[in-house]
Amino acid sequence: MSSNRGVVYIGPGKVEVQNIADPKLEAPDGRRIEHGVILKVVSTNICGSDQHMVRGRTTAEPGLILGHEITGEVIEKGSDVEILEIGDIVSVPFNVACGRCRCCREGDTGVCLTVNPSRAGGAYGYVDMGGWIGGQARYVMVPYADFNLLKFPDRDRAMSKIRDLTMLSDILPTGFHGAWKAGVGVGSVVYVAGAGPVGLAAAASARILGAAVVMVGDFNKERLEHARKVGFEPVDLSKGDNLPEMIAEITGSPEVDAAIDAVGFEARGHSGGEQPAIVLNQMMQITRAAGSVGIPGLYVTEDPGAVDDAARHGSLSMRFGLGWAKAQSFHTGQTPVLKYNRQLMQAILHDRLPIADIVNATIIPLDEAVQGYESFDQGVAKKFVLDPHGMLAA
């Protein structure tokens, strides 16, 4: 193994690619573990959730190695790893999960009870998620490997589809989870808030689940134009503040069967200022009685940059009474990636889901990660995929 390099959070608005320690088969507390593997990172993506930290909107400490969207090749394994072999190409769910606790046994791997001493749920390279080192790097360690990792069945076929398969670590299952929990099915009319990569993944998921109409709303004209190009109905929120009326212009009705919030807590209103609950309130307004709202967009318990003291502690001014009166269902929380990634892998391998084109996957070298973060923060209509070893370019 050559020396490792990774993307390091320096402070609000700043990341750097630095030399970092080579990974070891160790837990964050320093305990030796044998259930893990070391991966040579084949691809690793920049995520909107990373941007929340980089903008200084979480309690992340400087020095954090970022990255939770990882695809890699097994180059070393612990003695307890029985299923995986050296040379396997695998997708890494962003959830760190033990496979043994009650939540993992029930399929709720997004809230594993053992991998994070401070709360339920663990993730790589993320604040308050257990201290697991991130994978925007050349090499990374993955624990509980036999349980967590999805092995691709054929190396050559996987590498030919790697731009698509790299989305299995997070945004595709997250978008699918949002659509599934919103009750999308054959003939559904669907509205997705947010035309970023997760929103587009949710829209793509709604389409393969059988939706009749999939609308995507945003203020970003470049992202809306891309959404239109890949087959969705764009809703330009800059043209007015009456969302039901804008939806009715497309479908003939001001309500939808299912709504998906792919924006999260940094949502903005027409005033240009932040209104962290505006999307949630709009979802309740436009979703029909007895309809469902999926919320894959991130909401945090602590937001140092929030617009008011309540929002700094995750308390938002929601019209919950409206949702209650309409008997709506809401589903929040981290996506349990393992529930969906194998089926979604099959959809990709059999040409049913061209997710890389839908999210405009754009490959850049690891050493260009800083520029990738800057461009993504400016709202470019791209999903940046880092190529630490030049394997994707080749």
In short:
With 394 residues, the chain is an alpha/beta fold. It has helices spanning 48-54, 102-105, 145-148, 155-160, 162-165, 171-181, 197-208, 221-229, 243-251, 278-286, 309-312, 320-325, 341-349, 355-358, 369-377; strands at 4-11, 14-20, 37-45, 70-77, 89-92, 95-96, 122-123, 139-142, 150-151, 189-193, 213-218, 233-236, 256-261, 287-294, 329-331, 361-365, 383-387. It has 15 helices and 17 strands.
Structure in words:
This protein is of the alpha/beta class and 394 residues long. The protein folds into 2 domains: 4-170 and 336-387, Quinone Oxidoreductase, Chain A, domain 1 (Alpha-Beta Complex); 171-331, 3-Layer(aba) Sandwich (Rossmann fold), CATH 3.40.50.720. It is 27% helix and 22% strand. The chain contains 15 helices and 17 strands. Strands 3, 4, 5, 8, 9, 16 and 17 form a 7-stranded mixed beta sheet that branches. A 6-stranded parallel beta sheet has the order 12-11-10-13-14-15, with helices on both faces. Belongs to the zinc-containing alcohol dehydrogenase family.
Give the N-terminus to C-terminus distance in angstroms.
20 Å
pLDDT under 50 segments (min length 5)? Answer: none
Q: Might you state the CATH topology name of the largest domain?
A: Quinone Oxidoreductase, Chain A, domain 1
The amount of beta strand, in percent, is: 15-25%
What name goes with the CATH superfamily of the largest domain? Medium-chain alcohol dehydrogenases, catalytic domain
Please name the defining characteristics of this protein:
394 residues, alpha/beta, Quinone Oxidoreductase, Chain A, domain 1, Rossmann fold, 7-stranded mixed β-sheet
